[in-house]
Amino acid sequence: MKNKKNIAILFLAALSAAVFMSGCSGKKESNALSIAVFVPGIMADSPTYANLAKGVQQGIDEYNAGITDESKKAKVYIMEAGTNQAEWSTKLTALAADGSYGAIISSNPSIPELADPITKQFPEQKFVLLDGAMDGNQNIACISYDQKEQTYLSGYISGLLSQSHKVAVVAAQEYPVMNNVLYPYYALGASDAVAGTTCDFRVVGNWYDGTKGAEITDALAQAGVDVIMPICGGAAQGVLSSAVENGIKLSFIDENSFAKAPGTVISSCSTEQALASKEATLAYLNGKTEWGKTRYVGIREGYINFIQDDPLYASSVPEDVRETMAKLVKEITDGTREIPKL
Predict the structure, then answer these.
(1) Residue 56: enclosing H or E segment and its boundaries?
(2) Which of 10, 17, 50, 126 is 20 to 30 Å from 288 by CA-CA measure?
(3) How far is CA 310 from CA 261, 262, 317, in A?
(4) HSE (CB half, 13 Å, CA atoms) of 130?
(5) Strand, helix or coil for residue 252
(6) What is the pLDDT of residue 1?
(7) Residue pair 293/144 in contact by the 8 Å Cβ criterion
(8) Residues whose CB falls within 8 Å of the CB of residue 23, separated by 6 or more in sequence, listed in order
(9) What phi and psi values does residue 25 have, to the nearest 5 degrees?
(10) Exposure string for 12-40, b = 16+ CB within 10 A, e = fewer
(11) CB atoms within 10 A of CB 241
């Protein structure tokens, strides 16, 4: 009996050791060449985030080209955090707490504020953040698209094409960049194009509720608004469907959206997100990231494009308006015209 007890004890000890070793073997090792992409949303719903991940992967592939030693190759992990913004901070903190990634790369105007306190808790963690701005934190580097250009141009063409001289922004949520840049510069562009044009502002409350987006658009149509700039993620599907039904025109930023509703979409400003994330990835892997700074890029640097070569733009917008916009874009590009200051 005693021998059986000893055998049982030895078996349990061996089993426990095996379980412990299995757990250890599954733990990721910290590696400066490992990068995590934090997607604050779902890539299938957003070309912006799909291009973020695409650019990082392109940077990884270019860095690894010619490296035969697997231990010296960079690696990437992608986390889709979903559309519930209330969960982003917790998920981003968990990613940093894992300790496996030299840098976390993400893109959203709200991420720098979420990352800032995390760097105090995890002082070794680095963040490279696109489409946001923050200076002074030596663990964070940002690339900020000049959203004044995007929204001013979108507002300008909206003002030119509005018959009622009433335009609107439908936002997912209020946040500093929305309140201080996106909405006011869209409104400024519209009123600069046609004096007296007014701009309404409505909030969905999240980045996914298409039903609420449609309800807001229906209400704006009743109020006489005839051009809208939606910045509300998945909720823009509701804005789009209501706009088609109500004869409202739409102006998009961040991606080419003409094909979403030909004749309804009057303008698209795209950002070169894949290029920016690729370059940011290579800069990090090659030790060239400028920490604690925000790099601002726009039309002149080739990172923002007011799309004029899509056939749907030509078929949706009168020639005289296209000529006016071409002149405005050229002047901003060559530096002979500045976006007015608020």
Answers:
(1) helix 47-64
(2) 50
(3) 13, 11, 11
(4) 29
(5) strand
(6) 45
(7) no
(8) none
(9) -70, -25
(10) eeeeeeeeeeeeeeeeeeeeebbbbbbbb
(11) 16
What is the rounded distance in angstroms from the CA atom of residue 267 to the CA atom of residue 46? 18
What does the DSSP assignment read for 313-327? Answer: HHHHS-HHHHHHHHH
CA distance 160 to 195: 10
| Torsion, CA 277, CA 282, CA 284, CA 286, rounded to 10 | -170
Letter for the amino acid at 289?
T
* Of residues 259, 250, 268, 271, the one with CA closest to residue 55: 271
Instruction: State both tokens at 334.
Output: 């060559």
- Angle 147-161/183-193 helices, nearest 10 degrees? 40
* Contact between 299 and 305 (Cβ < 8 Å): yes
How far apart, in whole angstroms, are the C-alpha atoms of residue 255 and residue 269? 6
The pTM (predicted TM-score) of the whole model is 0.80
Alpha carbon distance 18, 20 (integer Å): 5
* Helix (H) and strand (E) counts in the chain: 12, 12
In terms of Cα–Cα distance, which of 331, 307, 211, 204 is closest to 251?
307
Region label for 41, one of left (φ > 0), alpha (ψ between -120 and 50) or beta (otherwise): left
Q: Is 254 left (phi over 0), alpha (psi -120 to 50) or beta?
A: left
Rounded Cα–Cα distance for residues 268 and 156 (Å): 12
Mean pLDDT, the chain cut into blocks of 10 residues (342 residues total): 43 36 40 93 88 97 95 96 92 97 95 97 97 95 95 98 98 91 97 98 94 98 98 93 98 93 97 96 97 95 95 98 98 94 90
Contact assessment for residue 213 and residue 235, using Cβ atoms and an 8 Å cutoff: yes
Tokens 């909206």 sit on residue: 158
